[in-house]
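Hi everyone,

Forwarding the result from last night's run.
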Amino acid sequence: MRLITYKNTNNENKAGLLVNDDNQIISLEENGLPNDMNEIIKLGESGLDKINDINHYKVKSIETNLVKIVAPIPRPTRNIMCVGKNYHDHAAEFHNSGFDSSGKQAVASFPVIFTKATTSVIGTEDDIILANDYTNTTDYEGELGLILGSGGKNIQSDDAYGKVFGYTVINDVSARQIQRQHEQWFIGKSPDTYCPMGPVIVTADEIDDVTKLKIETRVNGETRQSSYIRNLIFDIPNLISTISKTMTFETADIIATGTPAGVGIGSNPPVYLKSGDKIEVEIEKIGILRNKIA
């Protein structure tokens, strides 16, 4: 199933189910479910069963082009957890760029974890506001996002996929000079509008093997990043298991799993995003996240 959040005619956020090749939306609230995606996820299997039942009946739907689709979780309950240097080729380009303050090794021995503020989240077709980076060194990072269903502590790798509610697309937009000058990543990763997400959450049951999916980032139509999820250094079970050894996951937590090579600072000299640039991050079977630099 493909779940979204959209704004209705009263400018209210509502949870919906995409149907008919994503051309129509069924309101979940009008069919007895919560109107907030965090609350939908908390329902677990019973919620998914009810949504599946709704999908099999002819119920009232809305044309997609009549509403505005926003981030599937417009305001996460906690910071988005992110993984740095999690593709070999990107680890090398980042380490060689002069912006890597995370350690002496290009490839870390353990996952590099940081977070992005919840206030950085925007949806597809929303503008990334360049003025929020006073250093004018904004860069893109296309990533697979995990939406966790049930939380937990000390999750075993063998149980990790069972904790995944669904998948989305994330652009881990980064202010590189701010990231470097603070010698940590949180501030440079968290400017307002610097976490585009969406356009949908695809429930985990829809994807047989997420590692086979291709991820691609395009800037103004030019392909800059292209890889497969199977190329992650620390795979999804490893990430979930590692993080949960010290902290408890909560329902609807979000993990951005890392980006492949091809970011702007990988060029010599670096190529930063500028006003008017259009960025597309596409993951097959999930969708295309589109944003413009303003």
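The chain is about 15% helix and 30% strand.

Cheers,
N.
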